[in-house]
Amino acid sequence: GAVVSQHPSRVICKSGTSVKIECRSLDFQATTMFWYRQFPKQSLMLMATSNEGSKATYEQGVEKDKFLINHASLTLSTLTVTSAHPEDSSFYICSASGTGRMGTEAFFGQGTRLTVV
Amino acid sequence: GQQLNQSPQSMFIQEGEDVSMNCTSSSIFNTWLWYKQDPGEGPVLLIALYKAGELTSNGRLTAQFGITRKDSFLNISASIPSDVGIYFCAAPSVSGTYKYIFGTGTRLKVLA
């Protein structure tokens, strides 16, 4: 199957700093990428939809100025958590969908665990 | 809003036993998906269902798309230790897209 890679897999940052998480589709062109957030022992919650070359669409309650999403190419989307605070500590997961034969499902990355201290 | 409720929330089973879990909603969906998530990893697709009443298998896993389109079931036969993990159902919040909502999850723990 297709591979979606997230980097870093784990990151610890100080409160007030910004952290960038990358999501790459390694073997297909991802026209759309999605960013999810998962708190411990909870389900995945969709944060935003990222379309290549256009502005991201955020779900209700997600601060777009807090979680900056850039989808500058068909293989890369980034999520930047700005001015991070301890309550932003969470597991962030991206998924990517493509076209053609890669358009039958969304493929998930391995996730990034963010800890803000 | 759209919600997917899974039951049971968690379960312990003996190795070799069969497992059943379900996912229900008050909303109608045209696609149901089942994912497994291991600790510290992203979810991995197990089975996708696209038609009401459809019954699909993947090895020891069998899933069904409920005829009302408001529920789905996942069965695991002859469970083994590596079946441990969290199982999520998911469905597109917007039909025809990959914008998924996820269920509340069923945490499976196997007693060897």
Parts with pLDDT < 50 across at least 5 consecutive residues of chain A? none
Mean pLDDT of chain B: 93
How would you state the average pLDDT of chain A, rounded?
Answer: 91
Task: Please outline the major beta sheet of chain A.
Answer: 7 strands, mixed
DSSP helical segment count of chain B = 0
Structural class of chain B: mainly beta
- The multimeric state of the shown protein is heterodimer
Radius of gyration of chain B: 13 Å
Order of helices and strands of chain B: EEEEEEEEEEE
What general form of chain B does the structure show?
A: globular
* Number of contiguous helices of chain A: 0
Helix content of chain A: under 10%
Largest sheet of chain B: 6 strands, mixed
Number of strands of chain A: 11
Rg of chain A, rounded, reads 13 Å
Distance between the termini of chain A: 36 Å
Runs of chain B in which pLDDT lies below 50 for 5 or more consecutive residues are none
% residues in beta strands of chain A: over 45%
| H and E string of chain A | EEEEEEEEEEE
Shape of chain A: globular
